[in-house]
Amino acid sequence: MITPSQPDDAIDAYFDRIHRAALVLTGNPWDADDLAQETFLIFSRQRSSFAGRSSLYTYLYGILLNLDRRLRRQLGVRRRKLKVLWENRPSEPAMPAADNREEVREWKQSLWGHVDHLPEAQRHALVLRFGAELAYEEIAQVMECPLGTVKSRIFHALAGVRKRLEEEGNDRRIPDFPAEGHSHAV
Question: Is the pLDDT of residue 166 over 70?
Answer without folding.
Answer: yes
